[in-house]
């Protein structure tokens, strides 16, 4: 996976395939989430997902892990890891907003 952001500002030719995941929140509500970009930190890959039906809501960060050739999303429970990746996410979001 790369840290290339695939959005409307992407300036090269390729199809933008929407990666949709069903994510169950703390209340047990299933939501359709769309992967908007990925990034790496300390040899781990992370993904930011947005609610497909509420794109103005804050993004949710998951760690991507692979097992037997299949990738899956894992919630981040370690406080230090969470603080590190949210700082990276906030920096990416800040740069994206400055670019507009």
UniProtKB/TrEMBL annotation:
Which InterPro entries does this entry report, sorted A to Z?
UPF0473
Top-rank taxon, per record: Bacteria
Designated name of the protein? DUF1292 domain-containing protein
């Amino acid at each position: 996976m790369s840290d290339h952001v695939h959005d409307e500002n992407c300036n090269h030719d390729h199809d933008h395939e929407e990666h949709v995941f069903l994510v169950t929140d703390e209340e047990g509500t299933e939501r359709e989430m769309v992967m908007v970009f990925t990034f790496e930190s300390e040899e781990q890959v992370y993904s930011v997902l947005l609610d497909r039906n509420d794109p103005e809501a804050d993004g949710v960060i998951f760690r991507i892990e692979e097992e037997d050739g299949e990738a899956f999303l894992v919630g981040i429970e370690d406080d230090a890891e969470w603080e590190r990746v949210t700082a990276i996410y906030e920096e990416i979001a800040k740069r994206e907003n400055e670019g507009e």
